[in-house]
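Subject: Protein record for review, amino acid sequence with backbone structure tokens
How to read it: Take the token row as a discrete description of the fold.
Enclosed: The protein record, placed directly beneath this head.
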Amino acid sequence: MATTIRYFGHSAFEIKTGQHTLLLDPFITGNELSPVTADELDADVILVSHGHEDHVGDTINISKSTGALVIANFEISTWFGKQGVEKIHSMHIGGQHQFEFGQVKLTIAHHGSMLPDGTYGGNPCGMILKLSDTTIYFAGDTGLFYDMTFIGEEGIDIAILPIGDNYTMGPDDSIRAIKMLSPQQVIPCHFNTWPVIAQDSDAWAKLVSDKTTSTPSVLTPGDTLTVETR
């Protein structure tokens, strides 16, 4: 079964790989771009990049209703436990772990991570997902950083990068990031949710095509991308 990536707007994604369904930063309730409601989603695993409300999203309710395993840094995992989430795997930056669906490695991200109730959420993270047929880098919310060069050495097939600017890197810095990462494909996220992060995704895609060797894949909320097997 081919791996698929479905976009729900903002930075929320669903990845189906083999028999497993993963959710990334499932901000659904309050996300006006989302074509689905939180109670429509099923998941085996939920991965959370950092503690901000627009990334923690519906993790607690979805994990309680589906029994999904939640993967996040130690501080966020501890907080989830206090909210009644039962299945948790805590990690931290630079660490990796092999799960049934594939390997997860947490990377640095330059951002904040305060949790919705003001609790300290530790360091924000990106993540490298090494699945059976593809390697995905989900940058989370971040500015540009030179260590993306080292992340690129992992052999990235698909990079998911924020382009909204203001809170994260914008289109110009994303091009510099793509050049360091050298992914086969790149998907934009964290844009157009609110006016302050509005971007022209077609103009961004042209920049990617003109200035890098990667293929841009702009997904409209609700779209699904089928990953081509290497």
